[in-house]
Amino acid sequence: xxxxxLNDVYLALKEERYKVELSEDIMEHSRRSLEGMLSYV
Length: 41
Description:
Blueprint: H1 6-14, H2 24-38
């Protein structure tokens, strides 16, 4: 298994290298989870 480094993540975000496609159902569930976590900050 290939190790993903912080530099790999940085370059992927900077250069918009990879496209991630998610269904509406998954996005809504993830959004609720993230909003719940951020409410404690």
